[in-house]
Specification:
The complex is a heterotrimer of chains A (287), B (267) and C (278). Chain A is built from 11 helices and no strands. Chain A has helices at residues 4-36, 43-50, 61-72, 83-114, 116-129, 138-147, 152-176, 181-189, 194-231, 238-248, 251-282. In chain A, helix 1 (4-36) crosses helix 2, helix 9 (194-231) runs antiparallel to helix 11 and helix 10 runs antiparallel to helix 11. The longest helix of chain A is centred in the last third of the chain and has 38 residues, at 194-231. Chain B has 267 residues and is an alpha/beta fold. Chain B contains 8 helices and 9 strands. Chain C has 2 domains: 2-52; 69-277, MetI-like fold, CATH 1.10.3720. In chain C, 81% of the residues lie in helices and 0% in strands. Chain C has helices at residues 2-24, 29-51, 62-71, 73-106, 110-124, 132-139, 143-166, 171-179, 184-219, 228-237, 241-269, 274-277. The chains are: A mainly alpha (287), B alpha/beta (267), C mainly alpha (278). At the A-C interface, helix 1, helix 5, helix 6, helix 9 and helix 10 of A face helix 1, helix 2, helix 5, helix 6 and helix 9 of C.
């Protein structure tokens, strides 16, 4: 907890920089408005104008905060203007894709650890594919799946799955291989079967690795869903809000969608962190 | 303890002096007295070993002398000045328990690190690297990387590094603690030989009684809680010491006294 | 039907061959097995597309993608220059460079470091690519806005890795530098920067992928009439999927090459690190 003060300081610095940048970026518009109205602006008038423009180049943090408050707490969650409504759409796709990503990732990892052929043929491709800009494929996958009459949420989920399964595979392979030679030899002296070794040694040992990669995967699958929504915007979602905001120059809307996505990512990572802590504690592996 | 060798006046050529030295660490479990009222004089050319159980403050004392730790009370002088001034004047070489060689530099490159920092010329650097590597019998290994060498060879290289610049004092913190006994015997012999040829003043922390007796002209016995000196034993062994000296009655007698001192401190 | 049967037979044969190679530990097996696997995958793809008569609008066969790669090389090259050399690479250099410099500045304040690591780790996990529409508004349609997105994406991962790397020295080695009365800069150059290299390269490697993603995705929000992201989104609209796949192939090769280049530098500079020695 000794990090709280430093963290708050860093956050305060970021917010201060944000305000400063807002003033700098929005000042030209403030001046040109004043010029057309044939007024001269004092510095303080200029600053207060930059904090309250309707379509600022960079909205001030409090403008975004007000927008988020108005589109969450003050709107019915069924309203199309509610951020909770859009956030929920995105979250559903994210969780669906994430769940499939985990299942696929763990399954593949087990196959890789137990079958040398799979390891040697698939693993290099998995590692290589991490260097490939997968998100670039998103629009195509979305269009193809739409043509196949697949539900939107599934189409988005596929991209989420694609992004989240890599970290899970890599982390789980590492985790399942983490028991050292001595422990494996010990299982051998008990003449334990392969499945006994898996359930009693390999799997418990891989849990910390699993959680580490889950946290990376959760954030990745959210990014996947948001980017997929750029191509599938008719049915809403945070990505759709982002796109609509960029069409109409509604910068405040863009930033509030961005910050909501950030909050969602943070919530997912934090709940995974809490789950990790509880699980490791129950398993007696807490640090 | 009675002093078998008539000791010289302490100030004549004292290199390190400590008077009423105290160091208290503040921890979550309350204050820890790492050093309490330590008084000690180390003379020029002495080989002084510090021995005692863990927590007795032997390493802490060496670190205070090296200005790696700040005392909370008392006085330390090194070459007549404060430890900080002595450090800035590069008065000593320090050898840690692990070799701590930089893995991205060759053995020669590692020895050049202090020389580069202290601003020796290129020619001087090359000359000194060659000389100290010969001193520790590693002259074949200048171009090798540390991870290509055994633990004992790495530790020899780290000693060479501490010898490479002109410091009259060598401070060694359990330098052979992590090595096996055979390698350790060998390095002890080499260290004595080196001490004989260079005439350096050496402070040496160890937890091995035979090692302390074999190497030292003076053995400082320490005990924990609070960390303090319980006995200072002047060795009667000659400066020339073959390994066999460890089987002589004289050696066994001194070792016995050290053991007694440790036991008393423990009680 | 024949194509499907052939595809299945080739699949089975290649699998058997790989099993045989792995069992017998044939020389070069580490390269041969994945290559055989990849080629089989392509062949099965081709066979299924032909055998099932899958419309090229859904999934073009590899042969059609190959044809597009050959016949439209000049367009692909133009897109690559626009997206990679102008957008991604300039953003990568500016982003990683400035993160490195800021990390060095922060390094002198342990207080700021303690605050920055959690915040930086948090920001590095956010969907920063969403900044793309804003950057397009700020910096226009051309490559500058893409570079800006890339800067925003690579900055924090690089910063966090560098700050962590600079802390990676052992207390003993820092003490050693102190006994030499080494200055801050001497310690930095001789000890801490070299020790940070594995971390810095880790950041640089993560950033290669992010840079390409950022540059491509930013083009979805507006770009001049060239660029890989632009091409992908317009060709998808025209249902010309062979061209889309050709762009994706280029992106994949480019991504691997970019990553590989950085990894090569890493091998050169961190040859001493245990992870590189085997």
């Amino acid at each position: 907890m000794r990090n709280i003060l430093p963290i708050l300081t860093v956050v305060a610095v970021i917010v201060a920089l944000w305000y400063a940048l807002a003033v700098v970026l929005n000042a030209p518009w403030a001046y040109s408005k004043a010029e057309r109205a044939e007024q001269t602006l004092s510095f303080s008038e200029m600053v207060s104008d930059t904090m309250a423009q309707k379509k600022p180049r960079l909205p001030a943090p409090h403008q975004v905060a007000v927008e988020i408050w108005e589109t969450t707490a003050e709107k019915k969650i069924t309203s199309k203007r509610s951020l909770i409504y859009h956030g929920w759409i995105t979250l559903q796709a994210t969780l669906l894709g994430f769940a499939f990503g985990i299942a696929l990732g763990i399954g593949l990892a087990v196959a890789i650890v137990y079958f040398r052929v799979v390891d040697m043929s698939v693993m290099p491709w998995i590692i290589a594919s991490q260097t490939v800009p997968i998100l670039a494929i998103a629009p195509m996958i979305v269009v193809v799946l739409a043509a196949l009459q697949v539900d939107d949420i599934v189409a988005k989920g596929v991209i989420s799955m694609y992004l989240s399964f890599f970290p899970v595979v890599v982390g789980m392979v590492k985790g399942l291989r983490s028991p050292d030679g001595m422990l494996m030899d010990q299982m051998k002296t008990y003449s334990a079967s392969a499945s006994q070794t898996f359930w009693k040694l390999r799997l418990p040992n891989s849990v910390p690795y699993l959680f580490t990669s889950l946290k990376v995967g959760a954030a990745a699958s959210l990014v996947g869903a948001v980017v997929a929504e750029l191509s599938l915007s008719q049915n809403g979602g945070l990505g759709a809000r982002l796109l609509a905001g960029s069409y109409y120059g509604q910068t405040i809307q863009i930033w509030s969608a961005l910050l909501s996505a950030a909050t969602l990512a943070a919530l997912m990572v934090m709940s995974l962190g809490a789950l990790e802590k509880a699980t490791l504690k129950r398993m007696g592996m807490a640090a | 303890m009675t002093d078998p060798i008539p000791s010289q006046p302490e100030t004549a050529d004292a290199v390190i002096t400590a008077s009423d030295l105290n160091l208290t660490f503040q921890t979550n479990d309350g204050p820890v007295h790492a050093l309490k009222d330590v008084n000690l004089t180390i003379n020029k050319g002495d080989f002084v070993s510090f021995i005692g159980p863990s927590g007795c403050g032997k390493t802490t004392f060496l670190r205070v002398v090296a200005d790696l730790e700040q005392p909370t009370g008392g006085q330390v002088t090194v070459n007549g000045v404060s430890p900080e001034e002595a450090r800035k004047a590069r008065a000593y070489g320090y050898v840690f328990q692990a070799a701590g060689l930089l893995p991205w530099r060759t053995i020669g490159g590692n020895i050049r690190v202090p020389l580069e920092i202290m601003g020796y010329s290129k020619a001087e650097q090359a000359d000194r690297v060659r000389r100290v590597l010969e001193l520790v019998h590693l002259d074949q290994f200048e171009k090798k990387f540390p991870w290509q060498l055994s633990g004992g060879m790495q530790q020899r290289a780290s000693i060479a590094r501490a010898l490479s610049f002109d410091a009259d004092i060598l401070l060694m913190d359990e330098p052979f603690g992590a090595l096996d006994e055979i390698v350790r015997d060998h390095l002890n012999e080499q260290l004595l030989e080196l001490w004989g040829t260079t005439g350096k003043t050496i402070g040496f922390v160890t937890h091995s009684i035979p090692e302390a007796v074999y190497l030292s002209t003076k053995i400082v016995v320490m005990s924990p809680r609070p960390g303090r000196i319980t006995d200072v034993i002047e060795s009667t062994l000659p400066r020339e010491r073959p390994l066999e000296i460890r089987d002589t009655p004289e050696f066994i007698e001194i070792a016995h006294r050290v053991r007694e001192g440790l036991r008393e401190g423990h009680a | 039907m024949m194509w499907i049967a052939l595809a299945l037979i080739v699949w089975a044969a290649a699998f058997a061959l790989n099993v045989f190679l792995v069992r017998n530990k044939a020389p070069g097996v580490g390269y041969l097995v994945p290559v055989i696997f990849g080629l089989t995958l392509l062949f099965v793809w081709e066979g299924f597309v032909r055998g099932f008569g899958i419309s090229p609008v859904l999934l073009p066969p590899p042969s059609a993608i190959g044809a597009a790669l050959v016949s439209k090389t000049h367009i692909l090259w133009e897109d690559l220059v626009q997206t990679f050399f102008k957008g991604a690479l300039s953003g990568y250099i500016i982003g990683c460079g400035s993160a490195f410099v800021i990390a060095l500045l922060i390094d002198r304040s342990p207080f700021l470091q303690r605050g920055l690591l959690p915040v930086g780790n948090f920001i590095a996990a956010l969907p920063i690519v969403g900044l793309a529409p804003i950057m397009v508004m700020w910096f226009g349609f051309d490559w500058q806005s893409k570079a800006a997105v890339v800067v925003a994406m690579v900055f924090f991962p690089m910063l966090v890795n560098t700050v962590q790397g600079l802390q990676a020295t052992e207390a003993m080695q820092r003490d050693l530098m102190r006994t030499y009365a080494a200055s801050y800069w001497q310690t930095l150059v001789n000890l801490r920067l070299p020790a940070a290299m594995p971390f810095i390269f880790n950041g640089l490697k993560i950033a290669t992928t992010l840079a390409l993603i950022g540059a491509i995705v930013a083009e979805f929000f507006g770009s001049p009439i060239k660029g890989m992201g632009f091409r992908i989104s317009t060709e998808v609209g025209k249902l010309a999927l062979d061209m889309v796949w050709a762009e994706i192939t280029v992106a994949a090769l480019l991504g691997s090459a970019f990553y590989g280049t950085v990894a090569l530098f890493e091998k050169r500079m961190t040859f001493w690190h245990p992870s590189q020695r085997h």
